[in-house]
Design a protein that fits this description.
Distance between the termini: 56 Å
Number of helices: 9
Strand order of the largest sheet: 1-2
Oligomer: single chain
Largest sheet: 2 strands, antiparallel
Number of strands: 2
Strand content: under 5%
Radius of gyration: 20 Å
Length: 183
């Protein structure tokens, strides 16, 4: 009950929704760590914290690098990145096997939320990305990500994870090639 009260008070006081969210996460963590009736709650929290320590630094570095390299938009104004649009068109433009395979591999290791996929793809397509590679990226992205691979590896082992990742990349590449050939 104390966690709920703390979260509600922080929501009423704070001007940013980030504060009550962080208070709620901290409260939930404390509740699950101190739960004497179910050891799985404590194990879940410790496991989640372990994954967060593995993933968050990589995610932060990736976001900073992507923004720096590819650029961004703020208030309707485009801020160019270090990588010229011609290079994007060269890597993933058209509908070649290489461009689809490259987009599949990038999509497999990229970690983005569903709501950010479309704007990212719009920017890449505007820079010259082909429709086939765009689909390959969209197919490989939700199926795989670095956090996803870490969890799959922990459950299934390294060998089966490599096979799964390979199959997703290959199938996304083939689907991108087919889509690019017809559309």
């Amino acid at each position: 009950m104390g966690g709920v009260v703390a979260t509600v008070i922080s929501a009423l006081i704070a001007s940013s929704p980030l504060v009550p969210m962080l208070v709620g996460i901290a409260a939930l963590s404390l509740i699950t760590l101190n739960d004497k009736s179910d050891d799985e709650n404590k194990e879940w929290t410790i496991s989640t914290w372990g994954f967060a320590k593995q993933i968050l630094p990589l995610l932060a570095i990736g976001v900073v690098i992507a923004g720096f390299l590819l650029g961004s938009t703020h208030d309707g104004k485009t801020i160019p990145g270090v990588i010229p649009g011609e290079w994007i068109a060269w890597l993933v433009g058209g509908n070649s096997v290489f461009s689809n395979l490259f987009a599949s591999i990038v999509g497999a290791f990229m970690y983005f939320a569903t709501l950010t996929e479309v704007p990212i793809l719009q920017g890449l397509i505007a820079s010259g990305m082909g429709k086939g590679p765009a689909l390959a990226l969209l197919l490989a992205g939700p199926s795989l990500s670095l956090p996803n691979m870490l969890v799959i590896r922990e459950v299934l082992g390294t060998q089966k994870t490599v096979v799964y990742v390979g199959l997703v990349v290959i199938m996304a590449t083939i689907s991108g090639l087919m889509y690019g050939a017809f559309f």
